Amino acid sequence: IVAGSQSGSIRVWDLEAAKILRTLMGHKANICSLDFHPYGEFVASGSQDTNIKLWDIRRKGCVFRYRGHTQAVRCLRFSPDGKWLASAADDHTVKLWDLTAGKMMSEFPGHTGPVNVVEFHPNEYLLASGSSDRTIRFWDLEKFQVVSCIEGEPGPVRSVLFNP
C-alpha cells in the first residue's frame, strides 16, 4: 500500500510485515492523489505543488515529472491499458498525459470550477470528469473533445465510477 502525506512524502508499506519499506520524497506540498499503474511497480502522485510524479517503487525514485497544471492536482487515473495518465486539478482542467512520450497529449477545458475526479471507462475510449461546478463531463479519447455533459448535480461532484 502507498500513503501520501501532508508533508509531500509518500510511504510504501508492506502490509504482511506491517512496516514501512521506503519513503519517497519529492513533492513540496500535500499529496492529493495516488494511483497504481495497472501493470508494473509504478505509482503516480499529484500534489498541491501542481506537479505530477511517476515513481518506480522498487528502485525508490521518481522516474518522471509532468508539469502543466497551475493549481493543485486533485485526482490521477491510469488508463486501463497503462499507456495514459489523466489528471484533474483545481485550475478547472483535465489533462491527458502520454507516459511513453512523457508529455501532455491533450487538455480538456470546459469545467468552470475545480475538477475533483477523473475516471476512464473500462473498455471504451471515454473519460469522465466531475467538478465543483456540479457537472460531469464525458470526453471522447479518439477525437479529444467533450461528447456529453450532465448538469445540475445538487453539489460538487467528488466521485465518478463506471459500472464494469
Automatic annotation (TrEMBL):
A biological process term (GO) from this entry: microtubule depolymerization
WD repeat start-end pairs: 1-23, 24-65, 66-107, 108-149
One Pfam entry name: WD40
Keywords tagged on the record: Repeat, WD repeat
CDD domains, alphabetized: WD40 (cd00200)
Gene3D superfamilies named among the record's database cross-references: YVTN repeat-like/Quinoprotein amine dehydrogenase
UniProt xrefs under SMART domains: WD40
Top-rank lineage group of the source organism: Eukaryota
Cellular component, GO annotation: katanin complex
Keyword presence, GTP-binding: no
InterPro entries reported for this sequence: WD40/YVTN_repeat-like_dom_sf, WD40_PAC1, WD40_repeat_CS, WD40_repeat_dom_sf, WD40_rpt
SUPFAM superfamilies, per database record: WD40 repeat-like
Protein name from the UniProt record: Katanin p80 subunit B 1
